[in-house]
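Sync notes, pocket subgroup
Present: LS, DG
LS reminded everyone that the earlier model was apo-only. Rerun requested with nicotinamide-adenine-dinucleotide included. Inputs:
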Amino acid sequence: MTTRVLVTGGAGFIGSHYVRTLLGPAGPGDVAVTVLDKLTYAGNPANLDEVRGHPRFSFVRGDICDPVLVGGLMDRHDQVVHFAAESHVDRSIDGGAEFVRTNVVGTHTLVDTAHRAGIEVFVHISTDEVYGSIDDGSWPESHPLRPNSPYSASKASSDLVALSYHRTHGLDVRVTRCSNNYGHHHFPEKVIPLFVTNLLDGRKVPLYGDGGNVRDWLHIDDHVQGIELVRTRGRAGEVYNIGGGTELSNRELTGMLLDACGADWEGSVVHVEDRKGHDRRYSVDCTKIREELGYAPRRGFEEGLAETVRWYRDNRNWWEPLKAAADGPWASA
Ligand code: NAD
Ligand code: TDX
């Protein structure tokens, strides 16, 4: 029997890769997908070109905060995978209102209508940033939430709202908390696509603070693998961390990007003022998803990064219009 999956935010970076994978040759074959996406600055219809003509694909443009629209969609679906969010930390520092609206109110609208419609499984995609910064070691899922930016605070709030619908109403909510994703179709405001596209244009890259902040990099193929394990075999009311296993300081990452693009540090890196409240390091403990669901990242970082840089080199038609229409400080770096 075909499972009807509603994917919110499916025109964004990770959501679109999830949909392309689900409907691609390696997908499960027994799913029909509806993408619900508002098409904000981060949502791009071109990200779904590959699946547009697929017989088990449909697209609805709309807002996850709209209870009438969302309620109607819930009635026609069995499961939900919820990616839609405002996702950029720097934008949340400039103004948090849209983050609270989409990430908190939107998630509440989804779980509330999902519960009323009898949705079987609701996968809520969250982030390692909800735990806050950690100097040493790694967070297990039981670690208290100590988010520091308006973005991560709104994501932590959305996790709690979603999980409350499991405790209170018995909705089968499963939460994933992943580390920094990288790969193709990544909006060029985030560090890897921003730096790569600047370097490909012979421009400089803005490194925040001392460049010593550490992130764990997760290829989108591995993230999708983890989400599918949780959707198909995870347990109700549980949280699963998903990491990539490649921790790098921003300095180390920048060095690799310069090498990949044939640029040098002196000519290309500008040290700029640090991000306010900049979290020093994130690190998730992935024991639970590994032992319970058999998750292991498969993509090596060097090879994944080289492939990503190649994609940006070969797909200027995808990112040049996004940078030309840019409204953020990142655009003129
Ligand atoms: P993205 O910004 O690329 O895409 C977000 C998508 O959501 C866009 O298509 C946008 O149009 C849509 N959207 C925004 N507001 C909406 C609304 N009100 N109604 C309907 N659609 C709306 O984000 P991404 O990087 O693909 O992240 C997807 C999810 O994964 C987010 O929940 C994010 O918090 C989480 N996450 C991302 C990363 C990462 O490294 N990118 C890491 C951890 C967690
Ligand atoms: O121009 C830059 N210069 C710079 O040094 C930018 C944009 C970033 N940085 C630094 C800040 C961070 O330490 O690079 C690191 C990564 O920054 P981002 O790409 O903005 O990602 P981050 O803030 O770590 O958040 C990302 O991972 C977790 C996603 O954007 C979130 O949605 C996700 O939850």
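DG: The chain has two domains: 3-178+220-242, 182-215+246-273+300-325.
LS: Residues 141 and 197 are 35 Å apart (CA to CA).
Action: DG to write up.
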